[in-house]
Amino acid sequence: MPPAPEPSGRSGGSQAPGVRPALALRGLAKRFGDRIAVNGIDLDVPTGSFYGLVGPNGAGKTTTLSMATGLLRPDYGQIWVHGVDVWRAPLEAKKLMGILPDGVRLFDRLTGEQLVTYAGLLRGMDREEVAVRVSDLLEALDLVEDAGTLVVDYSAGMTKKIALASALVHAPRLLVLDEPFESVDPVSAANIRDILATYASGGGTVIVSSHVMDLVQRMCDHVAVIAAGTVLAAGTVDDVRGDATLEDRFVELVGGRNPGAGLAWLRTS
Ligand SMILES: Nc1ncnc2c1ncn2[C@@H]1O[C@H](COP(=O)(O)OP(=O)(O)OP(=O)(O)O)[C@@H](O)[C@H]1O
User: Fold this and answer.
1) Domains contained in the chain, number
2) Where is the ABC transporter domain (predicted)?
């Protein structure tokens, strides 16, 4: 098995010398038929960072994160999580990760409490420890009252929160969250941000994909901007945005603003 790479310094990492990144991607590529979704992505996510992955619709964020977490096989490239090759040693790698995928079906005929308990037991944890953590997570995510409700009857935001609890229950070293704040109300979003900040300050690494630039600017310390399956910029949030806001920098990098073109018929006066 080839050794995990040392931090390259060329792909957005700012890790102390000799410390392996929490996630390293090299030459990652994926094509669906004629469409190239991911076109050779290199990225280092430093251990302990709060890393935002941003890009326009169809940029390749979900495809990249699905490959990085072992859910989708890459056509080319390699992925290491804390030095473990995700596709050569999947069980070892997956023990290190908690994943909130975008749009993956949950076992929604379980109650919220049963679902998180099941996630803990699947990870090989003992029943008593799982019970303590499930209770703590339901409390922290304000789901105690709905612990006995079937997940199929949860709202979209509650479903996100219970999926997040399932991703956290085994205290992973790397948390990969695809659009964690979508459909989540502002109070719950603030609770989730607090939980993630505590997790990162305790040495955990968080990767979030998001369209909300303001949130990424406030919450993340690192960011990668991807478009058309390639990395346009990566590094600390301050380096990437320079003197501008992240949103302005994003629009500048990605381009494509076309206000109202061809929609003359929408004018009502
Ligand atoms: N299973 C699939 N089959 C065919 N094409 C796909 C598939 N999954 C993704 N794609 C295509 O790959 C490209 C990247 O999609 P992806 O979902 O990774 O983008 P994204 O950055 O997550 O977008 P969004 O922000 O809209 O969720 C898009 O052009 C998409 O249409």
Assistant:
1) 1
2) 23-253
| Whole-prediction pTM | 0.88
Query: Phi first, then psi: what are they for 184, rounded to 5°?
Result: -95, 135
* Cβ proximity of 20 and 77 under 8 Å: no
Looking at residue 177, its pLDDT comes to 93
The answer as to whether 75 is a domain residue is yes
Q: What is the ipTM of this complex?
A: 0.97
Return the residue whose CA atom lies nearest to atom 23 of ligand 1: 58
| Closest ligand 1 atom to 30 CA | 12
User: Which atom of ligand 1 is closest in space to residue 57's alpha carbon?
Assistant: 26
Note whether residue 202 is domain-resident.
Answer: yes
Domain of residue 219 covers: 23-96+172-266
pLDDT for residue 183? 79
Q: Which helix (H) or strand (E) holds 79?
A: strand 76-81
Residue 42 lies inside a defined structural domain of this protein: yes
Ligand 1 geometric centre to CA of 65 (Å) = 11
**CATH code, 28:** 3.40.50.300
Q: Is the pLDDT of residue 95 over 50?
A: yes
Say how many residues make up the chain: 269
Protein residue whose Cα sits closest to atom 16 of ligand 1: 60
